[in-house]
Amino acid sequence: MTHPRDILLGAQAAGGFLPVCDHYSGVEARMRKSLQLQAEMTEEFGTCVFDVTLDCEDGAPVGGEADHAALVAALVAQAGDGARVAVRVHAIDHPAFEADVSAIAGQVGHRLCHLMVPKVESVADVERVVAALAAVSCEALPIHVLLESPAAVHRAFDIAAHPRVQSLSFGLMDFVSSHGGAIPAEGMSSQGQFSHPLVVRAKLEIASACHAHGKVPSHCVVTEFSDTAAMKTAALKASRALGYTRMWSIHPSQIRPILEALSPDEREIESATKIIAAAACVDWAPISFDGQLHDRASYRYFWQVLERAHQTGRVLPAEMQPWFSSAAATH
Q1: Is residue 226 part of a domain?
Q2: Domain end: 246, 261, 276, which one?
Q3: How many domains does the chain fold into?
Q4: CA distance 210 to 282
Q5: Exposed, middle or buried, 166 (CB in 10 Å: 0-12/13-18/19+)?
Q6: What ranges make up the beta strands (E) of the chain?
Q7: Most CB within 10 Å of its CB: which of 140, 225, 240, 250?
Q8: Domain housing 292
Q9: Dihedral of the CA atoms 260, 263, 84, 203 (nearest 10)?
Q10: Average pLDDT for 12-31
């Protein structure tokens, strides 16, 4: 049977099955704890519900970049077979960029789910990353990029169109500080980042660029990591109002609120299941359901509800589970 992804998503399937949470850590103890937590929650939910991104940019001490890259490579090599581990390398204009790529992607690139590159400004920057990965025989490794300036946001559509780019993230704090004081500090807060027009505009540009090219928009951090309510509110706004399907975590306490906020509720899952099951029975021809017409345009939406439920560890109804088996999900 043809998989619904092939029938309904087309180019929109390019982003693949990405967990809705991307968890960052750069200190050795926290990196090890993050990998352990990922394994524990994978067992709990039956699927990997967040990526672990080991951080070289903010994690490496000045002068200790090479040692930190070696540590990160060792941790990647030690991760379990079902782990989803990525690495944030230094920016391309940093002296350690190529050394990071060589030491990590060159040694354990086959174990990485993607490479995160900060401070990308243009398609030319992406091409430089592609060349660096090609030099260490990692031509297939997906690239995630972090847009952190007004100029980068201006070029978001061109960057998202690059075939090696899988996801765009928004760098809130660098974006605000790059305005030379024109955006107040409140623009970096959990509330202000959703109210200042320039910040909201940048977020919308990135989300729109991603959706135009079938890529995954990943929302920025919430620095008030001890405020669970603020975290969940921000995640809901990012998802429901701004179109983000993935979000950064910088503390383990943020992971579950992100999963909860970006997960469909039981009512949504039930409706999506009924509609997709009915559509499959008629080979995806139009149907009438509860007095409403549905066709492939709406089927696409409801299928994506089920995908998001799977990505967040929700238990799917029995009739949907075969499409989300390991074999089907990676077909």
Answers
A1: yes
A2: 261
A3: 2
A4: 32
A5: buried
A6: 21-25, 50-55, 85-88, 112-117, 143-147, 165-170, 216-219, 246-249, 287-289, 292-294
A7: 250
A8: 266-329
A9: -90
A10: 84
Q: What is the pTM of this model?
A: 0.90
Same-domain pairing of 160 and 78:
yes
| Amino acid residing at 137 | S
Residue 13 has pLDDT above 80, yes or no: no
**Cα(211)–Cα(22) distance, rounded to whole angstroms?**
19
Cα 28 versus chain centre, distance: 23
Could you tell me the two tokens for 82? 């079902």
Does the pLDDT value for residue 3 go beyond 90?
Answer: no
Over residues 131-146, the pLDDT tens digits come to: 999 999 999 999 999 9
- 276 in the same domain as 238: no
Across 171-260, the runs of DSSP E, i.e. the strands, are 216-219, 246-249
Dihedral sign computed on CA atoms, order 215, 33, 326, 269: negative
pLDDT for position 14: 46
> Cα separation of 167 and 227, whole Å?
27
CA distance 128 to 115: 13
Q: What is the pLDDT of residues 305-326, one digit of tens each?
A: 998 898 888 888 998 988 887 5
Q: Mean pLDDT of all residues in the chain?
A: 93
- CA-closest candidate to residue 194, choices 259, 240, 227: 240
Q: Give the pLDDT of residue 204.
A: 98
Q: Are 112 and 141 in contact (CB under 8 A)?
A: yes
